[in-house]
Design a protein that fits this description.
Structural class: alpha/beta
Number of helices: 12
Number of strands: 20
Shape: globular
Distance between the termini: 38 Å
Low-confidence stretches: none
Helix content: 25-40%
Radius of gyration: 25 Å
Strand content: 15-25%
Largest sheet: 9 strands, mixed
């Protein structure tokens, strides 16, 4: 299964995972790699007419948790097609509440809120830490964003000993029993050189302080938490105005299995496909002449908030991709002058001939639960990327799309697999159906197979990483050639 397939991309992916505990960090990691490949940053708020030119490579971000990157072929003309891959940067997690300070039975606790549909029982008894972004005030009075990643374990959600409750199956209250402990009240008071009485006196004295629209972060959260965030951001705790912090497992992603054929990590869904999309785009542009004969635009869009429905400003159901495509569809070619306008239907022409791959991790067959899978559609790890199909359009795949992807895969000898859910199972969904409906562009859903999706510790295949990268590289390299050979309308 792995003959001639390299494990090197998987090792690179593991490094990517360990650097990227949040969507903000994912985008930061992607930006660094794009910049290293010669991409230029542009802003949504600016005019692109004099900046984006055929032969150029560009990227933009929204909320620094969604990123769109594209390269324009030198033979581009307004209304030509765009080859697109869409994925998402977020994963199920626990997010610190706006007022998180909790104490109980002598323990310091942190209030958290579930994000997405995680397998929350897997978060118990793990060595957890925090990461995200902090908004801080500068000495000039401006407010800027700082990325934060605390590399040591500071939180833990404890289970109840089996001797005290022999419940089976394990169940818990998300509001009462999913709050992590962060230490002991006595130890924190000792660190501060305070007693409970002096702390209570401070609370009373703050009632005489000047008016504040909101309590300071050091009042809404445990001061030690704010201090740790400030230290990571290299600012004074008093300059931390607000923050968005999530919990993550400090156990690093790693290669495992008897023959180093597996990946064990948090956030495979969907950093796995985000990494393959980014790397496939970059690899397709590695030859200096890669855009010389290209008549299309090669584009990736990595969205935030897929796990909670995508209906946000930075989600796939927002205007970000349609607005980018509208602006790109009218970019003049080298044979046009800047003053010469494109056709009024350039956007519609572009959408009608473009193609979107919706890339989101897929389900590998689980040997302990094989009865939950459709008998003839049981994807296996390290046997190639999985095409996802659903008769009720929970996935956007159709036959013309399968034909296109099969030809793309053939050119790089990438094996493919097919997946449908059992008739007795519900089917998840992706950004594919919503984007295909919004754009009217041809769309196909796929992903690399994994186990334990939405667990704090998931399992994927080492060699599927290279399969995904090669597939996407081939898609970008050959789409313009293949697009005109598949006839439907």
């Amino acid at each position: 299964m792995s003959m001639g397939v390299s494990a090197r991309p998987a090792h690179d992916f593991v490094s990517f995972l360990n650097a990227s505990p949040t969507p903000f960090h994912v985008v930061s990691s992607v930006k660094k790699r794009l910049a290293g490949a010669g991409f230029e940053e542009i802003k949504e708020r600016h005019d692109w007419a004099s900046v984006c030119r055929p032969g150029g490579k560009y990227y933009l971000t929204r909320n620094t948790s969604t990123i769109v990157a594209f390269a324009i072929g030198k033979q581009w003309k307004p209304g030509n097609p765009i080859a697109m891959i869409g994925a998402h940067t977020d994963s199920p997690t626990l997010r610190i509440k706006p007022v998180s300070k909790r104490e109980s039975e002598g323990f310091i606790q942190v209030g958290v809120e579930p994000y997405g549909g995680g397998l929350w029982h897997t978060w118990f008894d793990r060595d957890l830490s925090i990461a995200g972004r902090a908004m801080v005030k500068t000495y000039k009075g401006d407010f800027i964003q700082k990325l934060v990643k605390v590399d040591r374990p500071i939180l833990r959600i404890p289970t109840l000993a089996v001797h005290l409750d022999r419940q089976d199956p394990f169940s818990f209250s998300k509001e009462a029993q999913l709050f992590p402990i962060a230490g002991l009240v006595a130890a924190e008071l000792n660190r501060q050189g305070k007693s409970r009485d002096s702390t209570q006196q401070e609370i009373i004295s703050t009632k005489e302080a000047p008016f504040k629209p909101l309590e300071a972060p050091t009042e809404r959260h445990h001061p030690r938490i704010v201090e740790i965030i400030a230290n990571e951001a290299d600012v004074d705790p008093l300059d931390v105005v607000d923050f968005e912090m999530i919990l993550y497992d400090t156990q690093k992603a790693c290669i495992g299995g008897l023959n180093d054929e597996l990946i064990f990590s948090q956030r495979l869904d969907n950093q796995g496909m985000s990494f393959c999309a980014m790397t496939g785009l970059i690899e397709s542009l590695a030859p200096p002449s890669s855009l010389d004969t290209e008549s299309s635009i090669r584009l990736i869009s990595l969205f935030d908030h897929e796990e909670i429905g995508s209906q946000t400003a930075q989600g796939a159901d927002s205007n970000i991709l349609p607005s980018v495509l509208r602006r790109l569809s009218a970019i003049p070619s080298d044979i046009f002058s800047l003053e010469e306008s494109a056709s009024s239907t350039a956007y519609e022409q572009t959408l009608s001939s473009s193609f979107l791959i919706s890339a989101d991790m897929a389900h590998s067959v689980n040997p302990n639960y094989s009865g939950n899978y459709e008998a003839k559609h049981r994807p296996e790890m390290n046997k190639g990327t999985v095409i996802k199909i659903n008769a009720n359009a929970r996935y956007a795949t159709d036959s013309p799309g399968i034909v296109l992807l099969q030809e793309v895969a053939r050119k790089q000898n990438v094996p493919l697999q097919l997946f449908v859910v059992s008739n007795t199972s519900s089917c998840g969904s992706t950004i594919g159906p919503m984007l295909s409906a919004a754009l009217g562009a041809r769309t196909l859903d796929l992903g690399n197979p994994q186990l334990s999706m939405h667990s704090i510790r998931e399992t994927g295949g080492v060699y599927d990483v290279e399969y995904g990268v090669k597939l996407f590289e081939s898609f970008f390299e050959h789409f313009s050639e293949l697009e005109g050979k598949i006839f439907v309308d």
